[in-house]
């Protein structure tokens, strides 16, 4: 008598997740007519798929981690992440969406972990996200435009790592960055806004201007807004 | 099972976005992976809209987990229906497999036990999907590297029973037939003929690699000569079913994919006795 389908799924979930060994599954469900080696290959595939997704999304980060620590460190991080963040969502990239948050939380427990890791992860994710972020009302401002304040020159670090795994990296320095999809050409771009530019963004979004920026003169804001439009950050109002 | 689709298409991949607009070679239709479009915007949607102006477009999903235990994701299915309506897609195809258990997606096409219970389970979900999408659904015979415990049917019997019980179409993946036959020491022609070929609404052709003593269906190589032969045999049984070239890893330039499509079109035309364009006229 074979196991009913619900029992099959109850066994396969922990098996494919690496939480239950094959012998226990075989004991519960019976052996595969194709043999244990072929049955075991599905666990290999399941893990390989998740590693591939994380690798594709965060390739520069992996390069840096392998360089600063080891390939084992990268594998350990991915395993920890997958164990604590249910891979879900129809698009594979969704499985990697919380990697930056995971790294930030992990740094609270391990102060030897560099801040740059979570910042690189955030940059990589945001850069990928804006490419196909939903088209919103008007020019899709809320989804296709993201403001970031990093403690490292992350965009430069990522560019260098993508070009050369051994490239000399710049010293930590704050980076204020817009990661966005051009409202008209739909290309993914970066822009470093001025204080006046931040005010122009707040105004366009209908948000109150933060106190420290309230002193920026209106004519500066108007010029900054023209620049944002010229770079495709904002559509002409 | 007939549809308005004719001839030979290719899978639309982002690697070809820049080249596809200037394509002046024979290309009858395109297939997309809808997970790359549902709920998403930007260049992928603009490019899709431009392609749709030139070619018929159908969608082939990878994530609905039609054989899985979780309820269908109705929010996603609604978005999928909207996309299919926009494309005026005559049908929708996905895989006869599961991918998700208890909300956890394994991002793979995982085989079910070839059992009567699984037949009933899958057929009910396929019928529900077809109702929600308001169009026919076809299911693809997947590559499987291990037969799951608990089965009592052969793969051919399983697929045939699901297709009959669900009243759905078959997306006949000829490369999968070949890969499975080789991996499980079966005769490819007999394996092909055990499938419900009279329900075929589309054919897939792709390449595979060898890894660790087994053939791996990775869609990352040219179609093998043995698979071309099997395709010719398949067409002799099904008639001129619309055929797709899939190339998803190590993707070459568009022209190389279209070379494969040309080869498929020669065989398709031979069986149809006319070209896809003439058949549409």
Secondary structure: elements and pairs:
The complex is a heterodimer of chains A (237) and B (281).
Chain A: H1 5-16, H2 22-29, H3 36-57, H4 59-68, H5 71-84, H6 99-109, H7 115-131, H8 141-144, E1 145-150, H9 154-163, E2 175-181, E3 188-191, H10 195-205, H11 218-230
Antiparallel strand pairs in A: 1-2, 2-3
Helix pairs in contact in A: 1-2, 4-5, 4-7, 4-9, 6-7, 7-9, 10-11
Chain B: E1 8-11, H1 17-20, E2 29-32, H2 43-54, E3 57-60, H3 74-87, E4 92-95, E5 98-101, E6 104-110, H4 116-133, E7 137-140, H5 155-166, E8 169-173, H6 174-183, H7 188-193, E9 200-205, E10 209-211, E11 214-216, H8 225-238, E12 243-245, H9 254-272, H10 276-280
Parallel strand pairs in B: 1-2, 1-12, 2-3, 3-4, 4-7, 7-8, 8-9, 9-12
Antiparallel strand pairs in B: 5-6, 10-11
Helix pairs in contact in B: 4-5, 8-9
Structure description:
The complex is a heterodimer of chains A (237) and B (281). Chain A is mostly helical and 237 residues long. Chain A contains eleven helices and three strands; from the N terminus they run ααααααααβαββαα. By secondary structure, chain B is of the alpha/beta class. Chain B is built from ten helices and twelve strands. Chain B has helices spanning 17-20, 43-54, 74-87, 116-133, 155-166, 174-183, 188-193, 225-238, 254-272, 276-280; strands at residues 8-11, 29-32, 57-60, 92-95, 98-101, 104-110, 137-140, 169-173, 200-205, 209-211, 214-216, 243-245. The two termini of chain B are 20 Å apart. Classes of the chains: A mainly alpha (237), B alpha/beta (281). Chains A and B meet through helix 1 and helix 3 of A and helix 2, strand 5, strand 6 and helix 4 of B.
């Amino acid at each position: 008598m074979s196991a009913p389908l619900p029992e099959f799924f109850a066994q396969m979930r922990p098996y494919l997740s690496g939480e239950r060994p094959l012998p226990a599954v075989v004991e519960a469900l019976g052996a595969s007519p194709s043999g244990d080696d072929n049955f075991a290959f599905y666990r290999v595939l399941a893990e390989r798929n998740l590693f591939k997704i994380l690798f594709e999304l965060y390739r520069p980060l992996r390069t840096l981690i392998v360089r600063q620590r080891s390939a084992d460190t990268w594998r350990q991080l991915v395993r920890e992440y997958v164990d604590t963040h249910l891979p879900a969502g129809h698009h594979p990239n969704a499985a990697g969406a919380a990697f930056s948050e995971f790294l930030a939380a992990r740094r609270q427990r391990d102060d030897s972990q560099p801040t740059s890791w979570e910042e690189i992860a955030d940059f990589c994710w945001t850069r990928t996200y804006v490419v196909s972020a939903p088209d919103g009302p008007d020019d899709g401002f809320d989804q296709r435009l993201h403001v970031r304040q990093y403690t490292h020159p992350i965009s430069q670090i990522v560019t260098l790592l993508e070009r050369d795994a051994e490239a000399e990296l710049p010293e930590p320095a704050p980076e204020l960055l817009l990661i966005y999809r051009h409202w008209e050409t739909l290309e993914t771009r970066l822009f470093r806004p001025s204080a006046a530019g931040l005010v122009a963004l707040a105004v366009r979004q209908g948000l109150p201007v933060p106190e420290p920026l309230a002193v920026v003169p209106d004519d500066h804001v108007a010029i900054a807004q023209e620049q944002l439009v010229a770079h495709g950050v904002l559509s002409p109002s | 099972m007939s549809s308005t689709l004719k001839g030979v298409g290719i899978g639309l991949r982002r690697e070809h976005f820049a080249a596809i607009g200037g394509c002046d070679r024979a290309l009858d239709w395109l297939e997309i992976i809808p997970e790359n479009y549902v709920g998403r915007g930007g260049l992928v949607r603009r490019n899709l809209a431009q392609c749709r102006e030139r070619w018929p477009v159908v969608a082939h999903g990878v994530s609905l987990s039609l054989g899985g235990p979780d309820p269908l994701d109705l929010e996603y299915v609604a978005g999928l229906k909207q996309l299919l309506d926009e494309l005026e897609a005559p049908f929708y195809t996905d895989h006869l497999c599961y991918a998700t258990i208890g909300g956890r997606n394994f991002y793979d096409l995982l085989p079910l036990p070839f059992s009567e219970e699984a037949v009933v389970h899958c057929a009910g979900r396929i019928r529900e999907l077809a109702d929600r999408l308001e169009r026919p659904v076809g299911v693809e015979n997947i590559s499987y590297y291990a037969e799951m415990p608990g089965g009592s049917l052969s793969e051919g019997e399983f697929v045939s029973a699901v297709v009959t019980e669900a009243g759905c179409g078959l997306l006949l993946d000829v490369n999968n037939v070949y890969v499975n036959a080789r991996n499980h020491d079966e005769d490819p022609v007999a394996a092909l003929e055990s499938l419900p070929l009279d329900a075929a609404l589309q054919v897939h052709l792709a390449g595979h690699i060898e890894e660790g003593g087994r053939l791996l269906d990775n869609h990352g190589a040219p179609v093998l000569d043995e698979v071309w032969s099997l395709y010719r045999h398949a067409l002799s049984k099904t008639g001129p079913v619309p055929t797709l070239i899939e190339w998803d890893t190590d993707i070459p330039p568009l022209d190389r994919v279209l070379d494969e499509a040309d080869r498929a079109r020669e065989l398709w035309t031979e069986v149809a006795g006319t070209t896809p364009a003439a058949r549409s006229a």
